[in-house]
Design goal:
The complex is a heterodimer of chains A (731) and B (544). With 731 residues, chain A is α+β, with helices and mostly antiparallel strands. Chain A has three domains: 1-50; 54-411, YVTN repeat-like/Quinoprotein amine dehydrogenase (Methylamine Dehydrogenase, Chain H, 7 Propeller); 426-730, MetI-like (MetI-like fold), CATH 1.10.3720. In chain A, strands 6, 7, 8, 9 and 10 form a five-stranded antiparallel beta sheet that branches. Chain B folds into three domains: 51-129 and 237-270, SH3 type barrels, CATH 2.30.30; 138-233, Four Helix Bundle (Hemerythrin (Met), subunit A) (Up-down Bundle); 293-543, MetI-like fold.
């Protein structure tokens, strides 16, 4: 009985032992797992940015008549079409059932048709020479917890010139707030006519006042397309021989249009969201983007910006996205392309499978493309949540709306819906490197030289006090350093920058002088103090020099910089002095990095085998020769790894740069102005970034860059250190 | 050139470079000491009462305020070169709009420190400097004004405390119950199958409870209103420096002081009282006044939660490296992983914490356990639990390194003795090695906690807020609310220093918070260094 129990007890103990081993091993691998999990998770979040778009075609819908215009609701539950007889049909897509039919042209033959890019109206040209416009409304409601979209077709309004008949092309817009309807069309007597109907609702009486203005200019020859911007304030026109025209349209068409020449024959044209970018399709299949770019002080001018790889035949239809700067194009032979202007991305290219395409639509959420042709209506589902991000846009200069030339810009959000997000990481990378550079400039000499002194020229008794003091620096929370740098140091340095210059200039003289005086001290005094007590004397004299520098800064500034350093700086170099600048960050972040570099290089110095040092001294080298020619080269891999790790720390430091710079994402190397780093950018923007939006993922990408960067640095440093340990062991 | 001529030059160069190294070290020391001194000075000076000056200007105007430093007037505005000006905290924000004002030397006719100036620290609008004129409603004359005011104030303080107790007691209870019932009702509706009618009996029961609670709430709210009205009764009319009169409700006053009259003893008393208010009170005026108790509490609780998470992982990893693993590629990989965990920027941990803990895990928890509260997230938003776990990842290398050192310090013979007596490896580790290595592990824990206490960037993303409505621990079931957002000392520094509308006036308070934070962190590090040195010494002797 007892034996059995003992045996089972032994078994249990063995089991526990095995289990314990497993748990401990799991703990060890847990560390690797967590670092890999972080990497993996961040990559998973970034992946959708670079993933190719997925486009799927739904079965072709049959249409009995030729569809000449399409519009859909935001949730693609319905599709509205208008055909050559002027019949508007709304069909429910789930069961392909017609829910609404209305003949809006009242029997007149309908010619040219244009559908609102926002899917909210159709406009058409009637054979009689007038233009009709009918709004299509999508009322979204909830019933039983389910979304219900109720389509409705509003009252048509008509526009006609008094003495002439209107002819193609036409363009129309309903302002987003519904306050005005604008229609532009050519007329058969060679004019370009613009109608504007303003609708004002009196806030108190709710009376509706309508007024119409009509203006006209001479129409250019060979007009093939017209476009109006969202509010109807600008009219654009394209001619077949390759000219683009732009008129201001408020209050009436300006007499002098802006004209530019396109290199090629134009076949179609549309305006992107916001009305600042013109997409032009050419006969030879190319698609060009033209922006109204400012030119110094002169007014902005239509400027060729970029071209997308050509289709095989002429571009017949273009439809802009209502979400951002994307658009879709269809060519003569039915080839489809989805593009994004800002990111210069070809999102998808394919075949519509339809011959003789007659209408094109891009749904309000830019997630379906509707193409109508002789064979029916083809709907493509587009799964591409981040069209506005591309490697090009992230890392190369891009020509943005409202800019004179391609530039690196980070500007993730704006006040309006038609804002063009600018996701260039370059200013942030430059900011990161700038902050790192200036802080290492301070931290490397102070950290490495200080460590050298402590390990080579100092008595162990003194070392045991000094080392922890410097190491305590590492413990100071960076938020406190940032606070002091931003609110205490920055205004003081701004006031007395010359004192800082004085301190740096006087440094070698102060330590040299103090050292010489120290040598003059009676030998009896010096021998009583531990080796390296000199450093304490340096502290005292440097403190005195600091006070003196501050006192002398005014006369010095008057003498050298004419009394005002900032003014001198601006005059002599053209650089502006910001209060929170790279030098302040360098000081504060240098302070944070010094203890890291100090601790690791001190380790490397003290671990240099004694026999090397003794050998060198025995051969007659003096202390400094030994240190500089034996100790330093031997310890150099350790110092290299110290610098790498310090580098890594500076690259990722967040709070100091957040608080001690102005956080403006500019790409300049000027030490006297601020910058924004990748890390500070994440801290500033991620609380505002909607989950899974483009900004959210771009910020994850920034985190991934930081991760990779420090991963390389730290791994290199660790490998060097492991190698060094082996080498020391063999020496 | 002969070798003899070359030697002294080499010597001189050597000496110069040696001194340069020494100078570099001295700069490091000066920076460290200077910085600690700066924070220490400004942080402690914040609580010391300042004299209140009455400044008569040449123009005839009179200003009353505290002198907050002197500086030189910018050259383009100075009447005479080198003229100086003082920064005067004139308070009375409700009258003047600004707390501070610059006064040039040339403007000043006379500066005095009259004893009868009264400083009112108020709940709102900051300090008021002036002279009391009349007490309302008692209308007692100037002779007894001070005594009357003091008595009334004492009474009002008591009333205010009662109201606070009332609000956080019965009233909060009823509110909590109402919210619970609302969620209960939603839960019943959600429980019902798609299309089916929800359980009407349960709904009716909830509705009955809700009606009772609402009635009680109305009753209590009426009581609160009465008490508030009672509190607002009684005011003191103050005369400001420029002669304006301002009536201030005594119930809104925190302290009534006559700074120029205070002796050393009274000053020390006030100092202690202000420090106490600072560490134990709730913040006022969007954190720029009052205390920082919630921030202290949040920091401490977050750090402790973190240490629960970090201890097992760190110790296990250290055990693996020291006791189980054999040198080889795996150990190298673990070491590289440890170094990377230590070296990856803290903000990256924050991003990971947001995406993984908050959105993925927290969002899933919400879907499964708290569907009735959606779309308001419970765990699917930043909170103290996620913050602690994020920081645990961040600080795990600190624990590993220190615990490894502790394990290495345990002599081999101790292990071998245990094994020889028949204990298994795991028993040896649990009963012999770990207890012996405890100081090392403790050092690691302390260092990790210090690191966590000072870390801000990742927490800004995963749960820290400017002002948390309630502490993560309270008297209501389940007592510990890990999903709640929390305040943090480090974030307090950032937020008040950079985001508050009145940075100038708040700066001294930020220094005090920074001092507290630095004090805690440095103290923890010092303790860790002492423990570590002891350990090394023990190791050194046992190795012999």
């Amino acid at each position: 009985m007892k034996l059995v129990r003992e045996a089972s007890g032994r078994d249990r103990r063995a089991t526990v032992d095995r289990l314990g081993a497993i748990v401990v091993r799991a703990g060890g691998f847990g560390v690797i797992a967590s670092i890999l999990a972080i990497l993996f998770f961040i990559v998973v979040e970034v992946w959708p940015l670079v993933r190719a778009a997925r486009v799927e075609r739904r079965p072709i819908l049959q249409a009995n008549t030729t569809v000449m215009g399409v519009a859909s609701d935001p949730y693609q539950s319905h599709l509205a079409t208008i055909d050559g007889e002027g019949t508007v049909r709304v069909r429910q897509l789930s069961d392909d059932r017609e829910v609404l039919v209305r003949d809006v042209a009242a029997g007149a033959q309908v010619g040219h048709i244009t559908a609102d890019p926002n899917g909210e109206f159709f406009a058409w040209l009637e054979a009689g020479g007038r233009v009709g416009l009918v709004p299509v409304a999508w009322q979204v409601g909830f019933a039983d917890g389910k979304r219900v979209v109720r389509p409705s077709i509003g009252d048509a309004s008509y526009f006609a010139a008094q003495e002439s008949a209107l002819v193609a092309p036409i363009a129309a817009r309903i302002a987003l707030d519904g306050s005005s309807r604008t229609v532009a069309a050519a007329s058969d007597d060679g004019q370009l006519v613009l109608f504007r109907r303003d609708r004002e609702v009196n806030d108190f009486t709710e009376e509706v006042e309508e007024s119409e203005t009509l203006s006209s200019v001479d129409a250019p020859d060979g007009l093939i397309a017209l476009a109006l911007d969202d509010s109807g304030a600008q009219l654009f026109a394209a001619t077949a021989d390759g000219h683009l025209y732009r008129w201001d349209a408020i209050p009436r068409l300006s007499s002098e249009p802006e004209v530019v020449t396109v290199n090629g024959k134009v076949s179609s044209m549309t305006l992107l969201l916001g009305g600042r970018a013109l997409v032009v399709g050419l006969e030879r299949g190319a698609i060009q983007v033209w922006l109204r770019a400012p030119r110094g002080d002169s007014p902005p001018k239509l400027t060729y910006v970029r071209e997308f790889p050509p289709h095989e035949s002429a571009i017949r239809f273009l439809a802009p996205s209502r979400r951002g700067k994307g658009f879709v194009a269809v060519d003569e032979r039915g080839g489809v392309g989805i593009y994004h202007s800002t990111s210069e991305r070809v999102i998808w290219r394919g075949e519509s499978g339809l011959r003789s395409v007659s209408a094109l639509g891009f749904s309000p959420k830019a997630d379906t493309v509707v193409i109508a042709g002789a064979a029916g209506i083809s709907i493509f589902d587009v799964d591409n949540p981040h069209p506005d991000v591309s490697l090009r846009a992230l890392f190369l200069p891009m020509w943005y709306e409202g800019y004179e030339k391609p530039e690196y810009v980070w500007q993730s959000s704006g006040g309006t819906d038609d804002f063009e997000p600018k996701y260039s990481l370059v200013p942030l990378l430059i900011g990161t490197l700038k902050g790192t550079f200036y802080s290492l400039l301070i931290a490397i000499p102070l950290g490495v030289l200080g460590a050298m002194y402590v390990s080579q020229f100092m008595h162990p008794r003194l070392r045991n006090v000094i080392k922890p003091t410097v190491e305590i620096m590492a413990a100071l929370p960076s938020v406190v350093l940032g606070f002091l740098a931003g609110l205490w140091l920055a205004p003081r340095v701004e006031e007395a920058f010359s004192a800082l210059i004085l301190m740096v200039l006087s440094f070698p003289f102060v330590v040299g002088g103090t050292g010489m005086l120290w040598e003059r001290l009676p030998l009896a005094w010096r021998t009583r103090m531990p080796v390296g007590a000199e450093a304490i004397a340096f502290c005292v004299s440097l403190a005195a020099a600091t006070v003196l520098s501050i006192l002398l800064s005014d006369p010095f500034e008057a003498l050298v910089f004419g009394g005002n350093f900032q003014a001198w700086l601006l005059g002599a170099t053209g650089l502006h002095y910001d209060q929170r600048n790279a030098i302040i960050v360098g000081l504060a972040m240098g302070f944070a990095v010094i203890p890291i570099i100090f601790a690791i290089s001190e380790d490397a110095f003290s671990n240099v085998p004694r026999n090397l040092v003794s050998g060198s001294l025995a051969l007659g080298a003096n202390r400094w020769q030994t240190v500089s020619r034996i100790v330093l080269p031997t310890a150099s891999p350790g110092i290299f790894s110290a610098i790498m790790i310090g580098f890594g720390r500076a690259v990722g430091e967040t709070m100091i740069v957040l608080m001690a710079t102005g956080n403006t994402p500019i790409s300049e190397w000027n030490p006297f102005n601020g910058f924004r780093t990748l890390s500070a950018n994440i801290a500033v923007e991620i609380p505002e970034a909607p989950q899974f939006g483009s900004l959210y993922r771009v910020l994850f990408l920034a985190a991934l860059l930081l991760f990779m960067f420090t991963f390389v640095l730290n791994t290199a440093a660790e490998l060097v250190r492991q190698r060094l340990r082996e080498r020391y062991a063999s020496l | 050139m002969t070798a003899r001529a070359w030697r002294p030059r080499e010597d001189r160069i050597g000496k110069f470079f040696t001194r340069l190294c020494g100078g570099a070290l001295a700069v490091n020391l000066l920076l460290a000491i200077g910085l600690l001194g700066l924070i220490g000075f400004h942080g402690t000076a914040y609580f010391w009462p300042k004299g209140v000056a009455e400044v008569e200007l040449v123009s005839g105007d009179v200003l009353i305020g505290e002198v907050h430093g002197w500086e030189e007037v910018p050259a383009d505005r100075a009447a005479t070169p080198g003229e100086r000006r003082m920064r005067l905290k004139i308070g009375n924000r409700d009258l003047y709009g600004l707390d501070f004002r610059w006064v040039s030397e040339s403007e000043v006719a006379r500066v005095g420190y009259p004893a009868d100036i009264v400083l009112l620290e108020r709940l709102e609008w900051g300090n008021f400097y002036g002279r009391p004129v009349e007490l309302h409603p008692s209308g007692v004359g100037a002779v007894d004004l001070r005594a009357g005011l003091a008595a009334l104030h004492a009474e009002k303080i008591e009333q205010r405390e009662q109201i606070e107790d009332f609000e956080s007691g019965p009233l909060a209870d009823v509110n909590y119950e109402l919210e619970d019932l609302r969620l209960e009702e939603r839960r019943i509706r959600l429980d019902a199958e798609e299309g089916a009618e929800p359980d009407s009996d349960r709904l009716a029961a909830v509705a009955r409870l809700k009606a009772t609670a609402s009635k009680e709430y109305e009753l209590l709210a009426a009581q609160l209103f009465d008490r508030r009205r009672e509190l607002s009764r009684g005011s003191v009319r103050m005369q400001a420096a420029d002669g304006q009169h301002k009536s201030i409700a005594v119930g809104d006053i925190v302290r009534i002081l006559q700074p120029n009259e205070m002796g050393l003893f009274a000053s020390v008393g006030l100092y202690v009282s202000r420090v106490w208010e600072f560490v134990s009170g709730d913040p006022r005026e969007s954190n720029t006044e009052g205390g920082i108790f919630p921030a202290i509490f949040g920091t401490v609780m977050m750090v402790f939660l973190m240490s629960f998470a970090v201890a097992p992982l760190g110790v296990l990893a250290a055990l693996y490296l020291r006791e189980y693993a054999r040198e080889g590629p795996v150990v190298r990989a673990v070491r590289i992983a440890v170094n990377n965990l230590a070296g990856v920027p803290s903000i990256v941990f924050g991003v990971f914490g947001l995406g993984f803990f908050v959105y993925l895990i927290g969002g899933t928890i919400d879907q499964v356990f708290y569907p009735e509260a959606l779309p308001t997230p419970t765990y699917g938003t930043g909170g103290i639990l996620w913050a602690s776990l994020t920081l645990a990842l961040l600080t795990v290398p600190v624990v590993i390194v220190a615990a490894e050192e502790g394990l290495a310090a345990v002599p081999r013979i101790v292990r071998e003795g245990s094994l020889a007596l028949g204990a298994t490896k795991f028993e040896t580790i649990c009963k012999v090695v770990l207890p012996a290595a405890a100081p090392g592990i403790l050092t690691g824990m302390i260092l990790a906690m210090a690191r966590a206490a000072g870390e801000v960037a990742p927490l800004m993303i995963v749960g820290m807020v400017k002002l948390a409505p309630s502490l993560p621990i309270d008297g209501r079931f389940p007592y510990v609310h890990l999903e709640r957002k929390f305040m943090h000392l480090g974030f307090h520094v950032y937020d008040v220093g950079f985001q508050s509308p009145n940075v100038e006036a708040a700066q001294p308070l930020v220094f005090a918070t920074a001092l507290l934070l630095v004090g805690v962190v440095v103290a923890m590090n010092l303790v860790a260094i002492v423990v570590r040195n002891r350990l090394r010494r023990a190791y050194a002797t046992s190795a012999v």
